[in-house]
Prior knowledge:
TIM Barrel; 3-stranded mixed sheet; 14 strands; 50% helix; fructose-bisphosphate aldolase activity
Amino acid sequence: MKLAIASLLVGSAAAFAPSAPVGVRSSALNMAETATEPAKTYAKLPASIKPGVVTGQALVDLLDDAKARGYAIPGVNIVGTNSINACMEAAMKYGGPIMVTFSKGGGQFIAGKAVSNENDQASIAGTIAGAKHVHEVAKLYGVPVVVHTDHCQKAWLPWIDGLLAASEEHFAKTGEPLFSSHMLDLSEEPLEENIAICKSYLEKFAKVGILLEFELGVTGGEEDGVDNSDVDSSRLYTQPEEVFYAYEQLSQVPGGAFTCAASFGNVHGVYAPGNVDLQPIILYNSQKYIQEKIGSADDKPMKFVFHGGSGSSVEDIQYAIGAGVIKMNIDTDTQWAFWDGLRAYEAKYHDYLQGQIGNPEGPEKPNKKYYDPRMSLRAGEEAMAARLIKAAEDLKCVNVLN
Ligand SMILES: [Zn+2]
């Protein structure tokens, strides 16, 4: 309401400005400007951002917009077309962008658990297959979709090498990479080695318009087979000096774009209240430190991402967004939501799901329409999409397109 009044006041002040000739000239100029500017698809977003997969400069524009307007994009772990589509369905309903996130294990699951994953072949093939699915259908949902990959530790780099080769091939044909961004998580390594490896990958990424997400410190807890629940607690809190070192090093890569997963006590998974001590002030302190070091007018020079957001309070989430968080990862909460949808479906139709024939309506009644896998899987999709709409509300990502 306050905003509406403010813009009315601005509007009327302009209307009463005693400068008719100037006004005429500036409106002619405005017309010339609009004639040369590319057409906007979304009223509230830069013109570079179109429905479908967003990469390169359009992705940088999208993340800058999130930082400037104070919202964060849900980055959601998926394991197949059901969860991928639930992400895009949610984004269509909440009116914002979405990041579809493939873990190495999620990619392998898409290829199929029966095949060998020697040399990460199943993880590579499945992640590529999932990304191609997104490329084919994302436009139908009418929303910007970021195709992203999750944690990749040093031993898993061959997975990223395989995906990068696919992006290079895609880039040669279309001028765009297959993947919008990759996370490299070298936080197990010493800082200098972490950033040196990230820098060498960013040099390759920049050539085909892929953004890098890197990790400083350690996200606690357990996810996708990586268990950090016993890590020394000091490593859960990143120092501003470390963030600046990474910023300075990665800024040297021509055309390189990056975001930072700096740990501030965040933990993968959902734990009982009192077990997680978030210190998002670390993000503010890091921004201030970088701003002073580089003498920037921008008080948020770094774009941060928030891992281990499941179970965090809305207050902590929104405080972190104020410090330049432009994406929050969501996995545990949507895993539960998908399962809860299946569980509720089975509970509702239990007596129709105990055999192919015979239910409370009669011993010869067929049950095909209840056990068709699409029925229970759709219930999972709907529950997951509904949970993501709630997440988008917490992240202030609702109705940010138009
Ligand atoms: Zn994570």
